[in-house]
Design brief:
Helices cover 33% and strands 25% of the residues. With 428 residues, the protein is α/β, with parallel strands linked by helices.
């Protein structure tokens, strides 16, 4: 800007000197004759006016830039003050103030595009704080003082549950909105690693990118809703999470172009339902997971291009259901899975194209049934499987035009493997 002002000053002085020179030397143009001199003066005056206008524009632009910078600093200061206030509320000793802090932080995240991830991190950080859900049993043989302390802890936990539920519901509320890149909560990271989750409504959420992390989390006691959600990008991970009670509901959820990872998860009492789910081109990973009790339901589902992996899983108890499902494309793998006591049901399902493999699986205990199933594609295989105590019942299929494939059985069909009569297994 200083350079432009200097150039303008020099140019203006030059034009002024030119006029002075002409006047000072008696060369003022006459009205009736010296048209060249008159035009020269006009040019000099025009140059001077143009330079003046340019200087005025530069000065105005500079003022605007300074004003915008000041406004930006003021805006940043305002957001910072709101952030500090909401954080202080969120970590107040009073539950009602903490809940107000949840909504204040969420409101700030809506307004502050550059700081939205920071606000989300604070809310998720609250969920990762130590927490014991209420409704715990009174310690046996507790003294009156211990009972009083127990009752006080129960009251505090009950109030904190409302705050934590507000965090989960707020995340669900924001993810139900129509995604607008850079202006909504979608495509951000929600780190709930190790959190205790005992309720929350994320039904209808739209996961289109980013990362929702429940790794090592514990789901207990209440209902967590993901029903009618759509997962169409990014990552949703439950690595090593524990589902010990309550209900995690993924009913009627649609999955495509996303990785949903339950590898290493432990299902020990909860109901986790994917009933009526649609699994497109995506990965649903249960590798190395453990099912000891409860119900893992993939019933009434459509597998139309997904990769569903239960490889190396331990199915020791509880129930795993694929009833009334359609396996049309993609793959479902139980490679090297240990069937050690769970009830696994494929009843009334249709196998029309998806590769369903039990290669190397060990059927040691429990029951696997295919009652009224339709085998219309040679895509179900039990190659290298071991049958040593469990019941695998294929005796009553609806359709058996493309039976499952097995190894040869030189010593006869293993005990526990029940095939349709008189149709036996096919051989490669």
């Amino acid at each position: 800007m200083l350079l432009m002002l200097a150039i303008a000053a020099v140019t203006t002085l030059g034009a002024a000197w030119l006029i002075w020179f002409m006047l000072g030397n008696g060369r003022l143009p006459k009205l009736n004759g010296d048209t060249a001199g008159l035009e020269l003066i006009k040019v000099a005056l025009a140059i001077t006016a143009g330079i003046g206008a340019t200087v005025a524009l530069v000065v105005a632009y500079r003022k605007q830039r300074l004003s915008e910078a000041a406004e930006k600093r003021e805006r940043a200061k305002h957001f910072h003050e709101r952030y500090v206030t909401a954080s202080e509320q969120l970590y107040s000793a009073t539950a009602g103030v903490r809940q107000a802090g949840v909504y204040a932080m969420a409101s700030l995240a809506d307004d502050w595009d550059e700081g939205r991830q920071n606000c989300i991190d604070v809310l998720c950080g609250y969920m990762r704080m130590p927490y014991t859900p209420p409704e715990q049993p009174v310690p046996e043989g507790a003294t009156p003082q211990q009972v009083a302390e127990y009752e006080r802890n129960e009251r505090e936990a009950s109030m904190d549950r409302h705050v934590r539920r507000a965090v989960m519901d707020t995340i669900g509320w924001k993810l139900r909105a129509v995604p607008v890149y850079g202006n909504t909560w979608h495509e951000h990271i929600f780190d709930l690693t190790g959190a205790v989750i005992d309720g929350g409504d994320l039904s209808g959420a739209r996961i289109i990118g980013g990362w929702v992390k429940f790794d090592g989390a514990r789901f207990t006691g209440k209902v967590v809703r993901f029903n009618d959600a759509s997962f169409s990008g990014g990552f949703v991970t439950f690595n090593d999470a524990t589902f010990d009670s309550g209900h995690v509901d993924f009913r009627a959820t649609r999955f495509s172009d996303v990785i949903v990872d339950f590898s290493g998860a432990k299902f020990s009492g909860a109901t986790v339902s994917f009933d009526e789910g649609h699994f497109g081109a995506m990965l649903l990973d249960f590798r190395n997971s453990e099912l000891t009790s409860g119900f893992l339901a993939l019933t009434n589902a459509e597998f139309a291009g997904s990769t569903v992996a239960f490889d190396f899983a331990q199915l020791q108890g509880g129930k795993l259901g694929f009833d009334n499902s359609d396996f049309s494309a993609g793959s479902v793998g139980f490679e090297a899975t240990r069937f050690g006591g769970s009830s696994v049901q494929f009843d009334n399902s249709e196998f029309t194209g998806a590769a369903v493999t039990f290669a190397g699986a060990k059927f040691l205990d429990g029951r696997v049934t295919f009652h009224n199933a339709a085998f219309r594609s040679p895509s179900v295989g039990f190659k290298y499987a071991h049958f040593k105590g469990a019941t695998v019942d294929l005796s009553t299929p609806n359709t058996y035009t493309s039976p499952p494939s097995f190894d040869d059985f030189p010593d006869g069909v293993p005990e526990g493997l029940i095939l349709p009569d008189p149709v036996g297994p096919t051989k490669d």
